[in-house]
Amino acid sequence: MKFWKKLSHPDINKKISRALRENVNFKNDTTLGIPASKLDGEVFYDSASFLKDAPILRTFVQNPNHIGCHTLGESEAFFAGTQALERELIDLLAFDVLKGEDDAFDGYVASGGTEANIQAIWMYRNYFRREYKATHEEIAIISSADSHYSMPKAGNILNLDWLEVPVEFKTREIIEEGLDNIVSKAIESGKKYFIVVANMATTMFGSVDDPDIYVDVMQKYNLDFKMHIDGAFGGFIYPISNPSSTVNFRNPHISSVTLDAHKMLQAPYGTGIFIARKNLMKYVFTEEAQYVSGMDITLSGSRSGANAIAVWMILFTYGPFGWLEKINKLLYRTTWLTNQLDDMGIRYFRDEKMNIVTVEAEFIPVEVVKKYGLVPQTHSGNNKWYKVVVMDHVELDDLEKFIVDLKSARQ
Ligand SMILES: Cc1ncc(COP(=O)(O)O)c(C=O)c1O
To answer: Ligand 1 centroid to 48 CA: how many Å?
Structure first.
């Protein structure tokens, strides 16, 4: 680990305090030109004594705006202190978690996984348009049927077709023949450029796609493609639980990754993370953003610097070993659950490095679904699956109650 380590609370406090001092202080400094200020003191009392020991709350009150991307070019000088911590966060994730090379990535804290996925697809669409003079009709997004709906949403916004690749019912693996068929038909209908999105844990199943399945088919047809990994759910668990994984930047075909800190990392909402290899962000440079110092190359405009600090704080509070322990605790509980289901002869899907168990719907009576808030694959009839996500608050005690009720409801 180069960047990721555990820091004590006093050290974290000190680092954030220093960063805040390097930012503009709306209360004490004279700044006339920015359409922003600290949080309203009438409402968000900024002199409470507990703020001294709560660096994240002080950051919220001081209200830095991290508009833009701070890993390249210039940035708004008013918020240089906290932007530096966001940069450190991106370096840590690209290098220590996703196994990229040093200083070879750009990234920012987006509003969520949806934005980060759309940012990737926007970037690649523009890349194909600029470098290959591609038309919208010639570019397609391709991802599995288990992908998050942000892929068709991106298609809708960016005027691109989304091609849905079938997966095997039980294993949730991409059906290679199905992928081949879809790609060859797409070529016949005029598609030349492909934006591939592989999942590092799907929303419903926690299944992880093998990126090389896509690479093989793309290479078979000699196609130009760019590959993004949607790690919105799995990004903070799978690279840690499966250190031999190849779904990371060691794979030269993977150009960008989404990770969501507001899922597994329990960060506040508004902490999706987008990371891309250098020299790609330029394809989404908005030249018209003349009043912003530096380049506006993110889908969102203004965004809270406090969100980046929250993610930074969580990672440095745990450190890599603390986080590994936490992930292992969740995996232990998940395995406990699957052992119980095995004993009861109940069919389910689980990737053993993930904390999602998705049970075939026929095994779960509806009263148990309701009582335990299980999420169906679809709300519109013909649902075949329900999922249990073993998050931090889902303890063995809860799982044990679930199993007891499931047993009695099935008798
Ligand atoms: C795999 C995956 N991608 C993307 C998203 C979208 O994330 P957000 O809701 O943060 O926009 C989700 C959300 O559940 C997800 O599970």
So the answer is: 36
Q: Does residue 47 sit within a domain?
A: no
Domain assignment present for 13? no
Asked if residue 162 and residue 258 are part of one domain, the reply reads: yes
197 alpha carbon to ligand 1 midpoint, in Å? 13
- Rg of the chain in Å (alpha carbons): 23
Nearest CA to ligand 1 atom 7: 113
For the chain, percent helix, then strand, then coil, each to nearest 5? Answer: 45, 15, 40
pTM as predicted: 0.96
* Residue 143 resides in a domain: yes
Instruction: Please work out whether the CB of residue 113 comes within 6 Å of at least one atom of ligand 1.
Output: yes
Please, how many CA atoms are within 13 Å of residue 257, restricted to the half-sphere of its CB? 30
Bridge-based pairing of strands 348-349 and 272-277 is unpaired
Question: What does the pLDDT look like over 103-157, one tens digit per residue?
Answer: 999 999 999 999 999 999 999 999 999 999 999 999 999 999 999 999 999 999 9
Q: How far is the CA of 148 from the centre of ligand 1 (A)?
A: 6
**Are 134 and 283 found together in one domain?**
yes
DSSP state of 279: T
Is residue 69 assigned to a domain? no
What is the pLDDT confidence band of residue 42, given thresholds at 50, 70 and 90?
Answer: confident
Is the CB of 272 inside a 6 Å radius of any atom of ligand 1? yes
Structural domains counted in the chain: 2
Cβ(154) – ligand 1 distance below 6 Å: no
DSSP 8-state class, residue 28:
T
Residues 203 and 262 in one domain: yes
Last residue of some domain: 317, 351, 378?
Answer: 317
Q: What is the pLDDT of residues 259-303, one digit of tens each?
A: 999 999 999 999 999 999 999 999 998 776 666 666 689 999 999
C-beta of residue 355 within 8 angstroms of C-beta of residue 391? yes
Q: What is the enclosing helix (H) or strand (E) of 314?
A: helix 305-343
Domain-terminating residue out of 273, 302, 317: 317
What's the CA-to-centroid distance between 301 and ligand 1, angstroms?
A: 20
| Residue-range definition of the domain harbouring residue 296 | 77-317
pLDDT value of position 294: 63
pLDDT band at 159 (very low <50, low <70, confident <90, very high): very high
Q: Are 379 and 395 found together in one domain?
A: yes
